[in-house]
Amino acid sequence: MRLAWDTGSTYSLIQKTVVDARGLRLHDERYATERIALGRYNFGPHKMVALDLPGASDVDGVIGANFFARHRVCFDYSTWAVSIR
Fold this sequence. Notes:
- The mean pLDDT is about 85.
- The radius of gyration is 13 Å and the shape is globular.
- The strands form three sheets. The protein has a five-stranded mixed β-sheet.
- It has about 80 residues and is mostly beta strands.
- The protein contains two helices and nine strands, in the order E-E-H-E-E-E-E-E-H-E-E.
- It has one domain (about 5-85): Cathepsin D, subunit A, domain 1 (Beta Barrel).
- It has helices at about 15-20, 65-70; strands at about 5, 15, 30-35, 35-40, 40, 45-50, 60-65, 75, 80-85.
């Protein structure tokens, strides 16, 4: 999936069309992922609100503040590396 990062977004979002196309189950209008994984790193379960994001057809969703409240993203500009803790 292609997910944008938005620290200003109160909650993580997933396109409703992605939920429908992949047959994902909704729980109280939210989709609870089994896990968020980037490469070999598993960050555990994560809740996302399913809704339409008009004008954002190039992404499947947005990682918002509910992810960043538990994880820190570090940019090392000297080595062009990004790490998440």
